[in-house]
Amino acid sequence: MVDVQPRNMAQTNGSNGAGVEDAKAAKDIRKLAAPLGLHEYWYPAIEDKKVKNKPVGLKLLGDDIMFFRGKDGVAALWNVCPHRGGSLMHGDCHFEGTVSCPYHGWTFDADGNVLAVLPEGPQSKIPGKVKARKYPTQTHKGMVFIWMGNEEPAPIEEDVPPEFFDGHSMMLYAVEYWPSNWQIALENGADAHVPYVHRNAIRTLIYPMGLSWPVGARNKVINGRSVITYRPPAGANRVANPTQKVTRTYFPAVDGYWPKHAYRNLWTWAFGWARRRAANKPPWDTPEEWRQGHHMPGMYRGDHRTDMYTRNSVPVTENVSRQIYYKAVRPNSWIGRWYERIHFKLYGRWMQVTNFSKQDFTAIGPQRYDTQEYLSSTDSHQVVWRRLILQARGMMKQEDALQVPETEAEIISFRQQEEVGREPDRIQELLESSSS
Ligand code: FES
Ligand SMILES: [Fe+2]
Fold this sequence. Notes:
Elements: E1 2-3, H1 9-12, H2 20-25, E2 42-47, E3 56-60, E4 63-70, E5 73-78, E6 99-100, E7 106-108, E8 114-117, E9 130-131, E10 134-135, E11 137-140, E12 143-147, E13 170-178, H3 182-186, H4 194-197, H5 202-206, E14 219-222, E15 226-229, H6 237-240, E16 249-251, E17 256-258, H7 265-268, H8 272-279, E18 293-295, E19 299-303, E20 308-317, E21 320-329, H9 334-364, H10 380-390, H11 398-401, H12 408-419, H13 427-432
Parallel strand pairs: 1-9
Antiparallel strand pairs: 2-12, 3-4, 4-5, 5-10, 6-7, 7-8, 11-12, 13-21, 14-15, 15-18, 16-17, 18-19, 19-20, 20-21
FE2/S2 (inorganic) cluster (FES) binds next to loops.
């Protein structure tokens, strides 16, 4: 039997085949990254309810993939028909659990087997001889996850947040496309941009933020799969200080105050109850690996205490990424579930995803990612996350990744850490102490 593969092995290696020697000589960690994403991982693809009786096409990590309803749930095949390259997403589901190519009617099951060639009749000699490429899928809490690797699938619990597997978290979803590479999208987390870029977001007007610190969060690598922050980054200041107002700070070098005005304090008193409610809650109950910070293969998680927010950046092409947002909540009654659903539909999704996140991609859309950087202490999380990616599944072995020398940008970031009186991150120790 012939299996049709969508890509060659060189393409499956996220480092695009960069060898250890190339890596050692690299002056810029970003050049060793995976522009089309890390392949040997599970990714969210589509909500189960969106796949009905027609095939649906989606691009993930540069591959065109077709989803349809197989006998045991949503299945995924490479979109390219093994016969003569017909586009399966333009086909039909004539028979339960199958999809037929729109060209010569080759009809496939969820495993990619050809069950029939409709115009050739039941005596066709093709069935049993060729297979379409199948991608393993699993559906949890209404989200279809897909294994994008060529190796045997890893345990899905390593790549998908624990809220999908517990009995009490409810998941709410939103999707947005950004005109930026997945990695650029992900680096938009746990740095100093939050109080600046989002200063006029509705969320910030309700939960005012102070300045970021010049220090940067402490980082910790867990199980070789995540880098978490010890204290909430600036965006979560409201949790630490429920009565917080916008404080204006004098900057002698520009002889002015930032923020320039105090008018945002005119209404914050009215939302004190909301800030107190969040502040009185304990941190989101989750294993340390899944706390606030970055997690393989492409998530940024923020602990709002009332909910856990996850932005999963899924590579589409080298210059486009799809952000799949999970808002995890834990209501304890049917009224609570109903409230969360309505609140998210009418307001929460717009407030967090549209209003707040649009400000992110307005900033990062035109950003350059190929010029020399000068990193601050507050970029140290990015330094660790980039290093973690080097030793992801399908990338380099940990011992090889550890040989990649510190780059100038990293050294600058560590120097800033020392200058603000913070013990600098020791990258090797962080990574070595936590093997996957
Ligand atoms: S190209 Fe698909 S059936 Fe011919
Ligand atoms: Fe942001």
